[in-house]
Structure formats: C-alpha cells, structure tokens
C-alpha cells in the first residue's frame, strides 16, 4: 500500500513519462527550491540492444527540468538517464530518448505549456515574477 501511495504522489508531481520510466532517488530541499533526483529504471534497455548482451555503461549528464511549484518553492526534476553498451564492445553507447521538454525550454512539457498559454512567459521570466510576488 505504501509503495502505491508513493507512486501516486510522484505521479502528481512528475508527468507520466517521468514517473513511468524513472524512480526517485532523493529529494533536496533548500530555502527557495526543491530538487527531486530521478534515475532511469534499470530494466529499460534501449531497443537497439534488446536482443544483445547489454551492460550498463554509466549515466548521461543529468537533465534538470523545472515543474510546478510546491510550498512556494521552485521545483526541479533532475533526471539521470542510463548509458548502455554491448558486452565486450567499447565503440558505441546506447541510451533511451524521451519527450521530456519542449525545444528551448528547460521545463516539463506541462509546466512549459502552462507558462506559455496562461502567462506568455518563459521559465526565467516566470521565476522573476514569482520571486517579486512571494518576496
């Protein structure tokens, strides 16, 4: 029951593709922000390696996306995607790709759409406005 409840809460904070393909590793709360660190699930081997002997080859650089605020704090989702290779080969790495954000915006798709449609703002403009309102 607790795992189901946690999954439901994460689903409210992180959009479907993130909550489906990534798991929470940590939460870091600071004075004015919250960062939730996600790691790609270990069983999601890229399609090109499905029928080969695939091994983990580290992680790509994390992608950090802003999403809807919580507790009057800016919320960031830090996403670590896995890098894979075929066992015994070092010439090429593979990784999964996801539609996590709009081109040119470092927000979740949903939050970016909300900012654009409701306010006509980019994330940096929204953050300045939010800080001026909340103080």
Give descriptors for this structure:
single chain, 135 residues, alpha+beta, 4-stranded mixed beta sheet, two-stranded antiparallel sheet
Molecular structure report:
This protein has 4 helices and 6 strands. It has 135 residues and is of the alpha+beta class. It has one domain. The strands form 2 sheets. The protein has a 4-stranded mixed sheet. Strands 3-6 form a two-stranded antiparallel sheet. A hairpin with a 2-residue loop joins strand 4 and strand 5. The longest helix has 12 residues, at 2-13. The chain is elongated, with a radius of gyration of 17 Å. The relative contact order is 0.16. The model has no long low-confidence stretch (mean pLDDT 86).
Give me the secondary-structure topology.
Blueprint: H1 2-13, H2 16-21, E1 22-29, E2 33-40, E3 54-59, E4 63-70, E5 73-80, E6 82-86, H3 109-119, H4 123-134
The overall pLDDT average reads 86
Q: Given the structure, what is the number of helices?
A: 4
The structural domain count equals 1
Taking pLDDT < 50 over at least 5 consecutive residues as the criterion, the unreliable ranges are none
> What is the 3D form?
elongated
Q: Based on helices, strands and strand pairing, what is the structural class? A: alpha+beta
Distance between the termini: 39 Å
Number of extended strands: 6
Sheet with the most strands: spatial strand order: 1-2-5-4
Q: What Rg do the Cα atoms give? A: 17 Å
The SSE order reads HHEEEEEEHH
Characterize the largest beta sheet: strand count, sense, and whether it forms a barrel: 4 strands, mixed
Give the assembly state of these chains: single chain
The helix content, as a percent range, equals 25-40%
Strand proportion, as a percent range, falls in: 25-35%
